C-alpha cells in the first residue's frame, strides 16, 4: 500500500508554463488553519534521507509567504504552511522541481499497491544472486587458481556484477545524480562513487590479470545496503498503513438531502449544515449532530471501547463511526478535512515528522557527513600516494574509506525508532502530534492530572434514585428529557428507568451555568444549583459529591446526589506512576471537598483545588522553576493553557477541540493506562536512540582509522558498513517486542 496517489501532474496542475493554473489548484487544495494561514500538503516521492529533508525544507522556507515547511519521511509528504497578503500561494511545486524533486498534491491512496517496495525487492534479489555467485567464484580464486583460471573467474565476475550495478545500483545512482546535478550531496553520493570506483578498478585489474579484484565488494555493498533500505521502507510502510487504515474508515461518498431529494455526492462536497442520510451498516462520513432517528453506534475508533453507544436526536457523532442498528439523519457540522477522523490521520502523520533534539543532531551530522567522507577519502588517496607512489594501492584504500564511512547508520538512528514508536503507540490507542513529544515525555518526573474528564469520565450518575418518590421523578424527567447537560442526562436516565411517566410543562428554559426552569399552572420549577433553585438559600453540601436541587416556587422537592465515574484503571495507573518514582498531583477547578475526596480514593497525596486556568499555569510554571519536568493530562477548555505550559501534555479523545489541539498526545481509550503506556514506550525509544547513536559513532570511530591505515579491503568495508545499518534497524525493531514497556 502506498500513501501517495499517482496523480497526472500536467492534468492536475496545468502546464508548467501556466503557473497561475497550478497556483489555483494549490490554493483550492489547501486547508485553512485560521489567522490567515493555510496549509498545502504535497507528495514528494524523491525524498529518502536527511540530506533530502534539509534541502526541501531549506528551499521552501526561502519562498516569500512560506511560514513553515516540514517533511514527513514515512509519508513522503511535505506540509507547507503559508500566508500571503493577496491570498495567492507560493509556487512550491515549481521550487521543488528546480532543486530536482518532482511533486504533486498529496492524497492517500487506499487501494494501490506499493511500487517502491516491489522495486526494492527486485533490486535486492538481483544483487543477492550476483553477490553470492561472485563470492563463490572468489573462493575459487582465493583457493589458489592459476593465472589463466583466475582471469577467467574475474571476467565472469565482471559479467555478473554488471547487471547488479546497472539494475540494483540505479536506485542509488539516480538519487546521487539528481543531487549533484542541482549542486547538492546526499548519502547516495559516496555509495555511488565507491561502487563505481570499485568496479572500475576491478575491471582494470582483470584486464591486466592482477591477483585481486573487488567485484564481490561492489555487489555485496549493494546487496547489504538494499537489505537495510528495504527494512527501513517496510517499517515506514507499516506506519503509512496505519494512516491509510484510518483514512479508509471514511467513506468516499454519502447521500445528502438537496432540494428535498436524496443525492449521492463525494464526501469532499459535503458542507456544514448539509443533511446526510446514514443507513444501518454505513460509516458516518463527517462530524455532525443527529436530527432524526435512533441507533446504536460502534465508536471504537473514537473511544477505543467496543461497547455500542445508543444515540438519538441532538447527539453529536464523529466521522468514521459505524452505524449499526438503524437509519439516521445527521446534520454536518464540519467538512471532511476538518473532522475528528481527519484530525487523527494528521496526528498519525505528524508523529514521525517531529524535529526532536536527537533528530536535529542526527540530521546535522548526516548533512555534514558526505563532504567529510569525500574529503577523508581524497586525503587518504593523496597521503598514500605521497608515501608509496603506488596509485593502485592509494585508490584501493580510498575506496575502502569511502565505503566504510557512509553515514547510513547515523541517518537511520533516530527516524527509524520514531516510526516504530509511533506505530506502537497507535496500536495502543495513543495518537502522537509531534515526534519531539516522545523525547520530552521520556524526561518527565511529575504527572499533573485534571479531575473532571481526566481522572473521571465527566459522565455523572445519580446515586440516590431509590430515595426519591416516583411523583418527583416524573417532574424531573419532564424537565430533563430534552437537555444535553451531563447532570440533566444522568437524572433523566435514572428517572426513565424508574417511571414511564413524565410531567408535561408549558415552557422549559435552560439557564446557562444555573440549571433548568419550567412553568406549569402558574408554578415555577427549578432544577440545578441549590442557591438558585432555592432563591438564595444555600443548604449544607454534605459529602464531597455534586448535588442538584429540584424546587417548586423556591421550596425543595428533592435533592439529587450526582457522582462522576472514575476512569477505569485510574488507581492502578497512579500506583504504577508512583512506583516508577514519579510525582503525581491533581490540579482541578472543582471544590476542595470533591478534589480531596477523589485524591484520597486514588491515594494521591498532593492536590490543588478551585484553580482557575491561570492558577494551573502558575502552578506548572512554579514546578518548572523547581526543575521539575511536568506531564499535564487534561481535557477541558480551561486546561488548554496548562497543557501548553507543561513540558509535555496529553488529552483524551473526548476533550474539547482546543484541549486536543494544545496536547502533544491524544488517547482514545477510556482507561488512564494510556499514560503509563506512553511513558514506557517513550523511555524505551530514548534508550534505543542512544544505543543507535552509540552503534553508529562507535562503528565509525573504530572503522575509519583502520581503513585509513590500509588494513581494510573494499569487500570488508562493504560488509562492515552495511551491517552497521542493518544493526541499527534491527535494534529499533526491538521496540515491537516485549510486553512490559517501562
Keywords:
742 residues, alpha+beta, 5 domains, six-stranded antiparallel β-sheet, 27 helices, disordered N terminus
Helix/strand-derived category reads: alpha+beta
Query: Could you tell me the number of beta strands?
Result: 27
Share of residues in strands: 15-25%
Separation of the first and last Cα atoms: 33 Å
Question: Overall mean pLDDT score?
Answer: 77
Largest sheet: 7 strands, mixed
Q: List the uncertain runs.
A: 1-21, 351-356
**How many domains comprise the coordinates?**
5
Inertia-based shape:
elongated
Give me the secondary-structure topology.
Layout: H1 9-13, H2 19-29, E1 31-34, E2 37-43, H3 50-61, E3 66-72, E4 77-82, H4 92-98, E5 104-105, H5 115-142, H6 147-168, H7 170-181, H8 188-207, H9 215-248, E6 253-258, E7 261-266, E8 275-278, E9 288-292, E10 295-298, H10 300-303, E11 309-311, E12 316-317, E13 322-323, E14 328-332, H11 340-351, H12 357-388, H13 391-404, H14 408-412, H15 415-427, E15 430-432, H16 436-441, E16 446-449, H17 451-455, E17 456-462, H18 470-480, H19 486-498, E18 507-511, E19 515-520, E20 523-528, H20 530-533, E21 546-552, E22 555-566, H21 570-579, E23 583-587, H22 592-601, E24 606-608, H23 613-625, E25 630-633, H24 640-645, E26 648-652, H25 657-662, E27 665-667, H26 673-708, H27 714-732
Parallel strand pairs: 16-23, 16-25, 23-24, 25-26, 26-27
Antiparallel strand pairs: 1-2, 2-4, 2-5, 3-4, 6-7, 6-8, 8-14, 9-12, 9-14, 10-11, 10-13, 15-27, 17-22, 18-19, 19-20, 20-21, 21-22
Amino acid at each position: 500500500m502506498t500513501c501517495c496517489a499517482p496523480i497526472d501532474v500536467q492534468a492536475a496542475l496545468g502546464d508548467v508554463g501556466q503557473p497561475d493554473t497550478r497556483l489555483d489548484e494549490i490554493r483550492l487544495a489547501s486547508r485553512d488553519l485560521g489567522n490567515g494561514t493555510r496549509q498545502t500538503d504535497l507528495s514528494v516521492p524523491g525524498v529518502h534521507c536527511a540530506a533530502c529533508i534539509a534541502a526541501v525544507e531549506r528551499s521552501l522556507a526561502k519562498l516569500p509567504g512560506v511560514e513553515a515547511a516540514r517533511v514527513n519521511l514515512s509519508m513522503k509528504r511535505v506540509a507547507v504552511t503559508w500566508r500571503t497578503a493577496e491570498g495567492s500561494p507560493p509556487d512550491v511545486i515549481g521550487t521543488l522541481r528546480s532543486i530536482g524533486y518532482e511533486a504533486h498534491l498529496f492524497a492517500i491512496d487506499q487501494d494501490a499497491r506499493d511500487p517502491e517496495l516491489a522495486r526494492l525487492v527486485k533490486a535486492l534479489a538481483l544483487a543477492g544472486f550476483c553477490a553470492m555467485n561472485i563470492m563463490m567464484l572468489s573462493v575459487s580464486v582465493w583457493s589458489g587458481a592459476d593465472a589463466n583460471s583466475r582471469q577467467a573467474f574475474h571476467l565472469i565476475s565482471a559479467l555478473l556484477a554488471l547487471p547488479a550495478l546497472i539494475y540494483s545500483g540505479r536506485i542509488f545512482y539516480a538519487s546521487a545524480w539528481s543531487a549533484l546535478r542541482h549542486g547538492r550531496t546526499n548519502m547516495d553520493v559516496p555509495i555511488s562513487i565507491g561502487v563505481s570506483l570499485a568496479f572500475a578498478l576491478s575491471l582494470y585489474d582483470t584486464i591486466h590479470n592482477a591477483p585481486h579484484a573487488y567485484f564481490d565488494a561492489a555487489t555485496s555493498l549493494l546487496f547489504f545496503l538494499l537489505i537495510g533500505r528495504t527494512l527501513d521502507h517496510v517499517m515506514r510502510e507499516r506506519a503509512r498503513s496505519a494512516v491509510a487504515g484510518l483514512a479508509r474508515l471514511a467513506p468516499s461518498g454519502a447521500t445528502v438531502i438537496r432540494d428535498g431529494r436524496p443525492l449521492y455526492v463525494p464526501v469532499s462536497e459535503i458542507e456544514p449544515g448539509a443533511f446526510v442520510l446514514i443507513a444501518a451498516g454505513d460509516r458516518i462520513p463527517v462530524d455532525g449532530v443527529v436530527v432524526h432517528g435512533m441507533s446504536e453506534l460502534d465508536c471504537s475508533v473514537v473511544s477505543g471501547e467496543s461497547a455500542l453507544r445508543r444515540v438519538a436526536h441532538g447527539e453529536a457523532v464523529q466521522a468514521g463511526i459505524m452505524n449499526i442498528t438503524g437509519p439516521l439523519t445527521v446534520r454536518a457540522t464540519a467538512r471532511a478535512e476538518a473532522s475528528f477522523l481527519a484530525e487523527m490521520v494528521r496526528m498519525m502523520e505528524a508523529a514521525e515528522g517531529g524535529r526532536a533534539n536527537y533528530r536535529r543532531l542526527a540530521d546535522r551530522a548526516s548533512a555534514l557527513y558526505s563532504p567529510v567522507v569525500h574529503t577523508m577519502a581524497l586525503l587518504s588517496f593523496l597521503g598514500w600516494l605521497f608515501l608509496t607512489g603506488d596509485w593502485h594501492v592509494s585508490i584501493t584504500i580510498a575506496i575502502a574509506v569511502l565505503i566504510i564511512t557512509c553515514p547510513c547508520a547515523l541517518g537511520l538512528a533516530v527516524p527509524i525508532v520514531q516510526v516504530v514508536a509511533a506505530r506502537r503507540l497507535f496500536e495502543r490507542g495513543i495518537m502522537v502530534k509531534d515526534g519531539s513529544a516522545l523525547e520530552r515525555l521520556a524526561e518527565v518526573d511529575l504527572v499533573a492530572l485534571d479531575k473532571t474528564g481526566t481522572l473521571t469520565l465527566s459522565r455523572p450518575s445519580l446515586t440516590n434514585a431509590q430515595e426519591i418518590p416516583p411523583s418527583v421523578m416524573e417532574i424531573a424527567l419532564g424537565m430533563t428529557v430534552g437537555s444535553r447537560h451531563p447532570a440533566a442526562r444522568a437524572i433523566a436516565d435514572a428517572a426513565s428507568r424508574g417511571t414511564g411517566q413524565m410531567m408535561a410543562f408549558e415552557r422549559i428554559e435552560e439557564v446557562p451555568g444555573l440549571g433548568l426552569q419550567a412553568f406549569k399552572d402558574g408554578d415555577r420549577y427549578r432544577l440545578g444549583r441549590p442557591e438558585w433553585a432555592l432563591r438564595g438559600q444555600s443548604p449544607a453540601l454534605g459529602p464531597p459529591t455534586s448535588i442538584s436541587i429540584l424546587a417548586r416556587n423556591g421550596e425543595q422537592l428533592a435533592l439529587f446526589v450526582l457522582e462522576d465515574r472514575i476512569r477505569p484503571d485510574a488507581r492502578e495507573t497512579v500506583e504504577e506512576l508512583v512506583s516508577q518514582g514519579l510525582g503525581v498531583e491533581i490540579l482541578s477547578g472543582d471544590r476542595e471537598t470533591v478534589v480531596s475526596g477523589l485524591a484520597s480514593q486514588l491515594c494521591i497525596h498532593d492536590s490543588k483545588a478551585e484553580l482557575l486556568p491561570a492558577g494551573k499555569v502558575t502552578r506548572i510554571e512554579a514546578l518548572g522553576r523547581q526543575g521539575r519536568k511536568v506531564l499535564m493530562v487534561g481535557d477541558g477548555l480551561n486546561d488548554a493553557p496548562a497543557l501548553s505550559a507543561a513540558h509535555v501534555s496529553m488529552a483524551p479523545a473526548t476533550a474539547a477541540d482546543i484541549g486536543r489541539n494544545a496536547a502533544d498526545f491524544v488517547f482514545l481509550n477510556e482507561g488512564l493506562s494510556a499514560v503509563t503506556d506512553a511513558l514506557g514506550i517513550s523511555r524505551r525509544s530514548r534508550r534505543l536512540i542512544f544505543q543507535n547513536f552509540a552503534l553508529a559513532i562507535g562503528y565509525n570511530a573504530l572503522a575509519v582509522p583502520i581503513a585509513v591505515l590500509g588494513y581494510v579491503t573494499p569487500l570488508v568495508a562493504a560488509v562492515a558498513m552495511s551491517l552497521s545499518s542493518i544493526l541499527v534497524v534491527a535494534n529499533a525493531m526491538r521496540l515491537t517486542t516485549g510486553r512490559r514497556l517501562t
